[in-house]
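Hi support team,

I'm opening this ticket because the web form for multi-chain structure prediction keeps timing out on my end. I have pasted the exact lines I submitted so you can reproduce it. The total is 622 residues across two entries, so I didn't expect it to be a heavy job. Is there a limit I'm missing, or should I split the entries? Thanks in advance, R.K.
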Amino acid sequence: MPLELKDINKEKVGFFRFKKLNGEYLLTNDMGGYCFLDPIEFDLFLIGKIEDRSPNKYSELIDKGFIRDRLDFNGLTSKYASRNMFLGSGPSLHIVVVTLRCDHKCIYCQSGAKDLDSTQYDMDSRTAEKVVDRIFESPNSNITIEFQGGEPLVNFDTIKFIVEYANKKNKSAKKKLLISLVSNLTYMNKKILTFLIKNNVSFCTSLDGPEILHNKNRIVLSTNNNSYKNTIKWIKRIRGEVKKHKTYKYRLNALTTITKYSLSYPREIIDEFVALGLDGIHLRPVNPFGIREKTRQKISFSAEDFLDFYKEALDYIMVLNFKGHNFYERTAKIFLQKILTNRDPNYLEIRSPCGAGTGQLAYNFNGDVYTCDEGRMFSVMGDDTFRLGNVNKNKYQEFIDNEIVKILSLSSCLDGIPSCSDCVYKPYCGTCPLYNYVIEGNIFLRSPTNDRCRINMSILDYIFELLSNPEAKAIFEKWLGIKKV
Amino acid sequence: MSQNVIKIVLNSDIYNLEAILNACYAFIDRAYVFLDSDSKGKKVRVSLESKQVISAGKKAQLRGDFENELLYCSLRHKIGTNNKKIREYIVNRAIYSALPISSEDFNSDALKDPLGIAIPWEEKYGNVKKNNAKSKV
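Hello R.K., no limit was hit. The queue was backed up. Here is the completed structure from your submission:
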């Protein structure tokens, strides 16, 4: 007999969200706790009698804050605070576009790259100085300056200026400063590499997989250059060089963009990363920002096609891990950190509210400031909606205390969005209002028709399916550095 | 002209007026919108007139899209009302913690105390009390 609402024991049942997954009920709550119950246990939980049949489950439910008359308020409050720590910090990620010039013409380019001789799209040192001044006005004690482009190394002089000026300012500011370079490495040379290593700049490059795929996605303007070969050469060289510097503390990362052409190569892409000794891979579907509609249709794919690809890739990664490799997939790792720990990874697109303005700011070559890099990409399409001001004219406060930041925070707060506020995955998820805007013409998410929502939900379904396997869970814990007690 | 017009009657016990207005507003790029109500204010009549001549199929689609938008706006209004406190708390915290405490705030009038509010009672009235007490004796 199905239960009726009046049968629910309101003294025993704490707040929870749930869904049926593979014949069991998955329960979650705002403190990030999760628990699987079989259908009989679920009914007994609802009427407040699970203790008699499943004492272990009852203990687990108490520990995770699901039993109303056994709530540990202090413990649960500190978990909630820790999981939402990013709310009290301010922007930590500062993306600085030092130039729009680039030697590549990637099929998915979102940054509005310009020809190499268009030097008017370079950031000058006067603007760079103001950018750094504004960055250091953020109250966050952790500051990341990330160089992007175009190809940032085309304007190395400005990079050098910013690195030196930021380090100088930080002597008195005493923030935890991370400087990162996202580059295709075409213009890397020994002198630049030595400077960057000496100044503890971390490296991130783009690698889309095997040569045939990488070069199809990442086209170079010069016929003398092979993007794949150059990237591989420098990945190996940088990895070799950094080993010689004992004080250098970062490991090189590579980003992958998944286009329609990538879908046939899940294993080959991963093999490429494993062979280079990289720690993991981030399987990111191509973004719709800054790309012409015609091109977008040519290289994008359905959510279902991506999910088939993603699951095959993740299965393969798990097989490699079972064989002894320690290699992670980053989307899964972000979700797992939210599921298995109380520390939020502060991934700005998957948090509530999103990080637009409150977690990150993007600075264009001319000093224009945007809510995020995606907001800057909109300007490439001629839409300056997400521009917050200019470093030469506005104060830092004016960037944040701004209607655009407020509305993006409100629209990405999952507590106010139909479906999300009740979704079992609400404690682990987030939405990007700019993605919603470009796809559906509205910054407020409409989950039933939103591909990114479908992708996140399916990935989380799959992760929770894997979590019920103790061996897979052990691998996930290893990715997160969780030590068994 | 009338072939482009869709008329929908809504029960205001089910659909909040704010949600109806929001849903209508979302359609002003596609249709001219007119609203009216019955004398008791229990029924809201919505008239959507497509800006372009549309086929029967497109007309049905426009109606369906409006009905879905109405459901979405109703839910958003309800959830927005239910979760107002937590949303406000989260968003305020996200935004105002991102603002630095300006040094100007401390250097300016903020720390001045023209009414003497920050002066302790004993310091301000201690002697007066003693004097008053003496005078009473």
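A quick check on our side: Chain B touches chain A through 20 residues (CB under 8 Å). Let us know if the file doesn't open in your viewer.
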